Every structure is written in C-alpha cells, then in structure tokens.
Amino acid sequence: MIVYLSEYIDPAARQRLAEKVQIVDNFDEIEKIDAILLRGIKVDAALMDRAKNLKLIAKHGVGVNNIDLEAAKERGIMVTNTPGANGDSVAELVVGLILASARRLHEADTATRGGKVTRVAPPELRGNEIGGKVLGQLGIGNIGSRVSRILKNGFGMQVIAYDPWAPDSLFEKVGVKRAEKLEDVLKAADIINISFGLTDATKNLIHGDMFSLMKKSAILINAARGGIVNEDDLCKALKNGVIRAAACDAFVEEPPSGKHPLFALPNFIGTPHLGADTEEALQKVGQMVVDEVLRVADGKAPLHRVV
Predict the structure, then answer these.
(1) Is 225 tagged catalytic?
(2) Coil, strand, or helix at residue 46?
(3) Which of 129, 183, 254, 305 is catalytic?
C-alpha cells in the first residue's frame, strides 16, 4: 500500500505506519497512491480524479471540512477521522481561554511587560470569578460534553446547551439543561462556548445583532472552526462594549496573520488553532489515524468512517 503523508504526525505512529506501508510525501506518481493521510491540506474532487487508485482519505483529527466529502462518496473513496482522541486537549484549552478572559490575563501581562502597572491589584484589571455563572454551550458533542462536565463539576457553573442535532439522551447523560433556541442561550449565558463543526448550518452562526442579545459582561469562546463566528461583527461588538471579551483559537484565515482588527483589541485573545496541539493529543490522534490506515491495508473496514 502506498500512503501519501507530508505533514507532521507523532513519530512513533509514523514509524509504525512506515513498517507496514510505503510512505510518499509528494504527488509525483499520484495515480499509484492508495491512501492520503492528512491534517490541514485540502483534498478536492480534482485531486481525487488524479489519484486513480485512491481508496482512503484518513483525517488526522475530527473536522473534515478540508475534504470534499460528496466527491469522495461519488467516487467510492472512504473517509475516516479520529473522534475523541484530541477531546481532552481541546476542552482544556477552552477552559484556559475562559479563565484567561475572565481574569484579563492578556491585558495584565501586556500592561506589566510594558511597565504600565503602578500598583498591585490595579482596579482597571479587575476580573471575575466563573464559579456559579452560566455557561452557554453551543454543541454538545465530544468536546462540548467535556467542557460542560469540567465547568459544571469543577467550577459549579450552570450549563445551558444548544444542539439541535443531538438527542435528548445526550443532554441527560452530560447532566445539562437543553435549550430549544439559540437566542435563549445567548441571552442567559455569562460565558458562551462554541463546539460545533463547520457546516452549511453553522457557518456564520453568530453574527450581526446576535451580539446585542448577549449580556454586556458576556465572554465568547470559539476554539472550534473559523467561520462560525462572523469576525468583523465580533470585532465591532468588542470595540463598542456590546460584550466584554472573546477568545478564538480558530479563524477564517489560518494560520491567522494577526492583521485582522481583532488582534488590536485588548479584550480579545487569539491563538493559532492549537487546541489539539499537545504531546498527548498528537500521540493519541496519530495512533488512531494509523490504525485506520492499517485496517484498510489489511482489507478490514475502518472503525471511524465518515463516508
């Protein structure tokens, strides 16, 4: 089996893959490639048509928006991902961004480094506790469930969740209240966290006047996918004091260049999509994606097929 792999994966996982298949890092002989193992590269219909022997597209991660799923389905090409493997890593980053925003750590660090602090505990950097506050969780899948449990059990937060695609049983399992309308969550929450994938239904989900529904003290977190939150509208809301703060680990432009006006705002924290970028997550995801490739190489069905 010939597998295309040009991006970093855990070295131990790559070594295990190399012991069983031939790895190539270019498309010089694309017609001979049996599988593509990818993280961020785009695989579209045109590329699939060139790869005449392609049987599998294995995503290192969960989001498959960089793969043309319809084209893969039409051509009988299997697509897999690695659900759950990076959940702890992303959930922990979300909690970190919430705490950093609530306690204004970015502003405090910038002021201290710039020599602008003249007293301890300056009132202009006063933050808030999150204990007992309301979390509005958008998306109650693997990561959303983990974030909800951490903040509910660890910080005593009340959780209201919105996810029209999830069954009632999942809300009951996580132990959170279900909201039928997105607007109800936006109005009630002190902290809003987005854990949806990017689809036609979630693209530009948070935009325009929706920010005016939120509390002026609200904090918005998006460590899911760029494009779910309208970045220009978010910038206006932060600049005009419509909401208090926001933090994003995912952007429309990735990696983010830092040129967007959001990055000039003191009440905004931006990180370069590093939610799953921990040693532990990379090990788990790497081993899982290699498992899928090797199963197909052995003539077995993959365990985590998307299409």
Answers:
(1) yes
(2) helix
(3) 254
